[in-house]
């Protein structure tokens, strides 16, 4: 694996807790309409590669085939991959080992070994750079649903747009206090088996279209680990709440044009702080399709 292939920030993290809302608790595909605008669709994805995600559900595929544009959270290119990697590394004398300690550094090396990163390289990664890449790597070589959608759109010569730029993706994590980065990474290294199980159960809930269950799984996880609850809250605000506000605002240009297909992490659809509720506040109507 090449250095620039480290995952970018849009990964759906099993580390994020949920909030206790009941609105928009089911459904992955939503029709969005407004007077004077042709209907568009918003699809909740999950940013992991898995064989169970290789085909679009029939209603999603039908909506995508009618689309005249695709809007994604982020569309990486060679420059953005290199820039993201640069931001994820210490460029001075700081090291990961000095931040998290020798024992946890060895744990991090063990977890990252399957993706071919050297000891020296890992030691220059910031804690958040490691945190984004701690996942079950058995199926990590395949495309995510977002990547597959982008490829399908290009094959049809559809315009593909992104909501966020690379600097915004970097800011989400790089401005997280070092104390929080270290605490979250050390906790993740200590609870790998539990997080793998959480990831699998989250995927099962996603495949069932049960956004509420995804939230409940995370609430239960946080309830078991109150020692990192404050850091989880800070991460949730940055990764979910703040970005949902930006997404709901920026996607409206394409929604007004009509026939847009917007694909976002399913975390951004749920509840009163999700993009669907925010769009309704701006006068859009939403209807669950699938």
Characterise this structure.
With 290 residues, the protein is an alpha/beta fold. It has helices spanning 58-65, 78-87, 96-100, 102-112, 119-123, 127-131, 145-155, 166-174, 178-190, 192-207, 211-224, 229-250, 252-257, 275-281; strands spanning 29-34, 37-45, 69-72, 160-162, 260-265, 285-288. The chain has one domain. The protein has 14 helices and six strands. A six-stranded mixed sheet has the order 4-3-5-2-1-6, with helices on both faces. The radius of gyration is 19 Å and the shape is globular. Mean pLDDT is 91; it is low at 1-5 and 7-21.
Care to give the gist of this entry?
The chain is α/β, with parallel strands linked by helices and 290 residues long. Helix content is 49%, strand content 11%.
N-to-C SSE string, H for helix and E for strand: EEHEHHHHHHEHHHHHHEHE
What separation lies between the terminal Cα atoms? 37 Å
Sheet bearing the most strands, described? Answer: 6 strands, mixed
* Shape call: globular
Structural class: alpha/beta
Mean pLDDT: 91
Residue stretches low in confidence (pLDDT < 50, at least 5 long) are 1-5, 7-21
Say how many strands there are.
Answer: 6
Task: Annotate the secondary structure layout.
Layout (H helix, E strand, L loop, with lengths): L28 E6 L2 E9 L12 H8 L3 E4 L5 H10 L8 H5 L1 H11 L6 H5 L3 H5 L13 H11 L4 E3 L3 H9 L3 H13 L1 H16 L3 H14 L4 H22 L1 H6 L2 E6 L9 H7 L3 E4 L2
Parallel strand pairs: 2-5, 3-4, 3-5
Antiparallel strand pairs: 1-2, 1-6
Helix pairs in contact: 2-8, 10-11, 12-14
Main attributes of the structure:
6-stranded mixed beta sheet, single chain, 290 residues, alpha/beta, 11% strand, disordered N terminus, 49% helix, 6 strands
């Amino acid at each position: 694996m090449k250095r620039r292939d480290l995952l970018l920030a849009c990964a759906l993290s099993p580390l994020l807790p949920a909030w206790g809302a009941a609105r928009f608790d089911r459904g992955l595909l939503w029709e969005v309409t407004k007077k004077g605008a042709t209907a568009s669709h918003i699809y909740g994805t999950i940013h992991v590669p898995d064989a169970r995600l290789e085909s679009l559900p029939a209603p999603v595929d039908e909506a995508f085939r009618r689309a005249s544009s695709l809007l994604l959270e982020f569309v990486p290119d060679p420059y953005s991959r290199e820039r993201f990697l640069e931001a994820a590394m210490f460029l001075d004398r700081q090291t990961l080992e000095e931040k998290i300690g020798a024992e946890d550094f060895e744990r991090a090396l063990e977890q990252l070994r399957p993706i071919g990163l050297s000891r020296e390289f890992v030691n220059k990664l910031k804690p958040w750079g490691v945190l984004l890449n701690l996942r079950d790597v058995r199926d990590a070589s395949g495309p995510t649903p977002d990547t597959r959608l982008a490829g399908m759109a290009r094959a049809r010569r559809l315009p593909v747009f992104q909501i966020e730029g690379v600097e915004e993706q970097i800011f989400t994590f790089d401005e997280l206090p070092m104390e929080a980065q270290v605490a979250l990474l050390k906790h993740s290294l200590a609870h790998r088996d539990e997080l793998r199980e959480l990831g699998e159960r989250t995927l099962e809930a996603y495949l069932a279209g049960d956004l509420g269950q995804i939230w409940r799984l995370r609430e239960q996880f946080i309830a078991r680990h109150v020692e990192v609850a404050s850091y989880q809250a800070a991460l949730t605000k940055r990764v979910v709440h703040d970005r949902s506000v930006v997404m709901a605002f920026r996607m409206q240009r394409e929604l007004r044009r009509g026939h847009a297909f917007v694909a976002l992490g399913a975390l951004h659809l749920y509840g009163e702080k999700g993009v669907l509720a925010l769009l309704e506040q701006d006068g859009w109507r939403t209807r669950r399709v699938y």
